[in-house]
Amino acid sequence: MISVEGLKVEFGIKPLFCDANFVINSRDRIALVGKNGAGKSTMLKILCGMQKPTAGVVAVPNDTTIGYLPQVMRLQDDTTVREETKKAFAGNMQMKEQLDDMNRLLAERTDYDSDEYMELVQKFTQEHERYMMMGAENYEAEIERTLCGLGFLRSDFDRPTCEFSGGWRMRIELAKILLQRPDVLLLDEPTNHLDIESIQWLEQFLAQAPGAVVLVSHDRAFINNVTNRTLEISCGKVVDYRVKYDEYVVLRNERREQQLRAYENQQKEIADMKDFIEKFRYKPTKAVQVQSRIKQLAKIVPIEIDEVDTSALRLKFAPCLRSGDYPVICDDVRKDYGVHTVFDHVTLTIKRGEKVAFVGKNGEGKSTLVKCIMGEIAHTGTLKIGHNVQIGYFAQNQAQMLDENITVFETIDNVAKGDIRMRINDILGAFMFGGEASDKKVKVLSGGERSRLAMIKLLLEPVNLLILDEPTNHLDMQSKDVLKEAVRAFDGTAIVVSHDREFLDGLVTKVYEFGGGCVKEHIGGIYDFLRERKISSLIQLENTNFPDLAKTNKAKESVISPLNAYNDSIYSKQKSNYAEHKEQQKKLRKAEKAVSESEARIERMEKRLKELDDILCIPENASNMDYISEYTVTKKNLDEEVEKWEKFSEELELLNN
After folding, report:
1. C-alpha to C-alpha distance for 533 and 536, rounded to whole angstroms
2. Distance of alpha carbon 484 from alpha carbon 550, whole angstroms
3. What is the pTM of this model?
4. Count of domains for the chain
């Protein structure tokens, strides 16, 4: 369908890539991979005709249509969802205008027997038949069907696009592309702003799409599920691997080993030639051999190898204080924006050391609850942050808070402590800031580079509760691996808001699903949750154990979502369980209070024992019986309190289970 020959792109002295040759066939599912800055987005722009190459040919048949989804969307903020989606039918609407013009001419003219009139009749007939064959008369129904399939409500159709989050705006662009039915679909980071449910829907759509697909994505699970071929841009070359991504990784490692051996052999050959030239340069009897070696040296084409893979680098978070047993406790937390209830009856307990995920559709309240935990926004209900909790927060706009007037290296050097300062260059290299890139000023970095720098900075700060809000959006696969290993080895507690299944797999042991104004707990990893999600109905999964909210939402159906309207039979079953649920929560709160008060008493006694230790270390106080007696009594009370705390903790654990 698309043939690429001798493609070359130059932005500076060194070409981005050159002599690229490949063909995109119908039904191909191609993953375009390579490190950041290799030219993946540039390649997509060239394929869709938005950018011209320095040299080479991109041959696209005249009847081939191309749909392009850019990484950065440009939607009109003064249009509604319906109006924006209608742009997909711009060609049909233009054809309709032409047909209307021809119809008007036919009505106005009276020279029925003339050749010109008969030609106009024939042209009108042909164009009208083509218009009807395209199904253009039904485009309104098609728009509604597609938008509803993508999760929009009919009440959303006339809302301005500016009211929607990035993930929903991405769906509007997807709807436009789907309605165009292109022969070739080009997608640049389509999963960056999509939730897990949307990504799964997109996977299913791409599996059924009749045309070819070329996509750029750092979501390993997504490209593994979608693609059957991999194009790698590396060292200025485009290498075609006709296998899925996982198989490509194995083949690429083998190829890199071969490259490395060839590079080492070539370097040895070059060194031998240079030694020979230097040794016999001034010997007349060796002049011919020396000149021959110089010519051979000039003809050698240097072998390039990929940059050293630093994804195996192991990073550790800076040491920090031990937090209390329960860093986050929510009891009947609720958040409203005007008449819209984001969530209600949120009751959850996150234990020290747990790694949990917040998942759900965009706009269901994941980031809102995070902001409540951070104390950035007000809420109703009880939200308690545990003892000694130090929060490290990576927000989606974290990159905007960096000092723009210092370099990348200085940004990290300012927060690094101890031995880690000796490894700053290794850490920066793992996150693609190796070599001269570490000397760049922050103000010249792109948005993605700033996000990576903010992530490195967070890695080095001493925290015991880590909150990551979409941390992988701008990280490539190597950087994600480094981050994942660091979070997995983190001694503290972690809350991860993410749509990246591969990143969450093996990292989290509990999933909190946000949906329908409720938050539901799922024990197990992300794939355990996904399996459960597929076999349960949407209403059961989103609304179980939250009858009060459902009743409220039923009255607000036009504001929130028809999914919140309960079936009467489901509601009657849940109502009987609600009293038990409230009683359980009452016992849980009582146990949590006992644990918390016990921890406070233990802390006071430990503090006093330390003070007495310091006092008794002074020679003149060593035999003071008052201090010795107080120390003995406090130590005994502390031991008794620790036993009580263990008992309270066991009771709390039983209630939680």
Report:
1. 5
2. 37
3. 0.55
4. 4
End-to-end CA distance of the chain: 58
Q: What is the rounded CA–CA span in Å between residue 421 and residue 435?
A: 16
Same domain, 373 and 431: yes
Calculate ∠ Cα 147-188-156, nearest 5°: 20
Q: Give the three-state DSSP class for 16.
A: strand
Residue 639 CA to chain centroid, in angstroms?
48
Q: What is the pLDDT of residue 315?
A: 62
**Token pair for 98:** 């032409």
Question: What is the rounded distance in angstroms from the CA atom of residue 657 to the CA atom of residue 654?
Answer: 5
Q: Is residue 313 part of a domain?
A: no
Number of other CB atoms surrounding residue 126 within 10 Å? 10
DSSP H stretches of helix in 5-113: 40-47, 81-86, 90-108
pLDDT at residue number 571: 38
Residue 5 has φ and ψ, to the nearest 5°, of: -135, 130
Q: How many residues does the chain have?
A: 657
C-beta contacts of 128-134 below 8 A and 24+ residues apart: 128/99, 130/95, 131/92, 131/95, 131/96, 131/99, 134/92
Q: What is the pLDDT of residues 357-415, one digit of tens each?
A: 998 877 788 888 998 998 888 899 999 999 989 898 887 666 667 888 899 888 888 88
Q: Specify the amino acid at residue 469.
A: D
Q: What is the pLDDT of residues 229-239, one digit of tens each?
A: 999 988 788 88
What CA–CA distance (Å, rounded) separates 516 from 30? 36
Alpha carbon separation from 605 to 289, 302, 642 (Å, rounded):
87, 70, 11
Instruction: Please state, in angstroms and rounded to a whole number, the distance separating the CA atoms of residues 589 and 404.
Output: 46
Residues 200 and 256 placed together within one structural domain of the fold: no
Whether residue 34 contacts residue 232, with contact meaning beta carbons closer than 8 Å, is answered with yes
Establish if 151 belongs to a structural domain: yes
Last residue of a domain, one of 513, 537, 566: 566
Query: In this predicted model, what pLDDT tens digit does every residue of 52-104 receive, in sequence order?
Result: 888 888 998 888 889 888 876 666 667 888 888 888 877 666 777 778 888 88
Asked if residue 205 belongs to a domain, the reply is: yes
**Strand extents, DSSP E, 470-562:** 493-497, 510-515, 518-523
Of the candidates 647, 518, 648, the one whose C-alpha atom is nearest the C-alpha of residue 589 is: 648
Q: Which domain does 216 fall in, by range?
A: 2-70+79-247
Strands across the sheet containing 55-59: 15-24, 2-10, 55-59
The residue with greater pLDDT, 313 or 470, is 470
Q: What is the CATH number of the domain that holds 495?
A: 3.40.50.300
Taking the alpha carbons of 630, 636, 639, 642 in that order, is the dihedral positive or negative? negative
Angle at the Cα of 491 (from 486 to 493), degrees rounded to 5? 95
- Compute how many other C-beta atoms are within 10 angstroms of the C-beta atom of residue 131: 16
Residue type, 127: E
Is 308 among the domain residues? no
Same-domain status, 421 and 374: yes
Nearest to 7 by CA among 243, 236, 185: 236
Name the DSSP class of 217: -
Separation between Cα atoms, residue 447 and residue 428, nearest integer Å:
17
Are the beta carbons of 444 and 275 closer than 8 angstroms? no
Amino acid identity at 376: E
> Rounded to whole angstroms, how far apart are CA atoms 405 and 211?
48
Which amino acid would we find at residue 567?
A: N
Which pairs with CB-CB distance under 8 Å and at least 24 residues apart come from 269-278?
269/300, 270/297, 270/300, 273/297
